[in-house]
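Running co-folding for zinc ion.
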Amino acid sequence: MRAKRPLTAIAVCLAAIAVCLAAIAVPSAGALAAEGEHKPHVHGESKMRLAVEGSTLEIELESPAHDIVGFEHMPKTAAQRDAVKRAVAALGNGEALFRLWPGAGCKLREAEVETPLAEAEEHEKHEEHKEGEHADEEVHSEFHAHYRFRCAEPGRLGAVEVMLFETFPKMEEIELGAVLPGGQRAKTLKPGSNRFDF
Ligand SMILES: [Zn+2]
């Protein structure tokens, strides 16, 4: 039985990271949310913004919760709450999700993940809704993530391989907009075309 303890410890640790990431996320993801508030998203379509300025590489991601966890309502079961926690932890792992050319020497300095689905427990605690009160409403929710990398040699940022499709198989495409020293560029990333060349 002792052999199982480390796994339990890892699970608790991941849950703690998830809560922590959700807590820091509010400012920048909030700004992104406000911008897209009145536009309904399309399931399967994520938006990604990438900006290089000096030695800083910033990435913002906005994804329908459908693409990340498969549902957009508040988690109702332990399994759904767990799925949200795991997704927040996975999204926080920016170095795994964005494979940058090693020659550029980029290190992840900050990762913030926010989703209204992670606030479910508190919501349930403080407000009691009648059964079925929201049953007829069409619910849409999103995950927002923000990453800041510091790169020792930003001029050597040859390409970034976006690994989100492998981690979240419901993602179909990502509309990428990039602001680079040489100007603005756009590309639609797909599972078979997940690389962006700087
Ligand atoms: Zn939706």
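Result summary
The longest helix spans residues 5-24.
The first strand starts at residue 45 and ends at 53.
Job closed.
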